[in-house]
Amino acid sequence: MTGTSHLYLVMAMRNASFQAEAGVAHQAFLADLIAQGVIDTTGPFTDGTGGAYLLRADDLAAATQLAHGDPLHTTGSSTLTVHEWRVRRFAPEA
């Protein structure tokens, strides 16, 4: 990344054709992005329908390009949508 990074929410919703092997490859994909410092947060939905992750990227095009390299997307196992997210964080009250 070269400029100011922004946060992008990637929502991955499982398709009927979900492949368990793609889920394993997805975990390796996320581990690589975590090692690069690109992932802020990640996790599955508790109802098993998919999950989400928060990417740091220069712009929407870069975030979309990263997300479209996800094995969940490349295998057609999940539908991925990428949204620029202006996250607001609040400090806990003392």
Task: Please characterize this protein's 3D structure.
This protein has one domain (6-84): Alpha-Beta Plaits (2-Layer Sandwich), CATH 3.30.70.1060. Helix content is 30%, strand content 32%. It is built from 3 helices and 4 strands. Strands 2-3-1-4 form a 4-stranded antiparallel β-sheet, covered by helices on one side. A hairpin with a 5-residue loop joins β2 and β3.
Summarize the structure.
The chain is α+β, with helices and mostly antiparallel strands. Helices cover 30% and strands 32% of the residues. It has a four-stranded antiparallel sheet, with helices on one face.
CATH-defined fold name = Alpha-Beta Plaits
Structural class: alpha+beta
**Form type:** globular
- Please mark out the parts with pLDDT under 50 across 5 or more consecutive residues, or reply none: none
SSE string, helices as H and strands as E: EHEEHHE
Strand order of the largest sheet: 2-3-1-4
Termini separation comes to: 36 Å
Tally of extended strands? Answer: 4
* Beta-strand percent range: 25-35%
Average residue-wise pLDDT: 91
Q: Quick one: CATH class?
A: Alpha Beta
Continuous helix count: 3
When the domains are counted, the total is 1
* CATH 4th-level superfamily: Dimeric alpha+beta barrel
Helix share, percent: 25-40%
- Radius of gyration computed on alpha carbons: 14 Å
Which CATH-level-2 architecture?
2-Layer Sandwich
Biggest β-sheet strands, sense, barrel: 4 strands, antiparallel
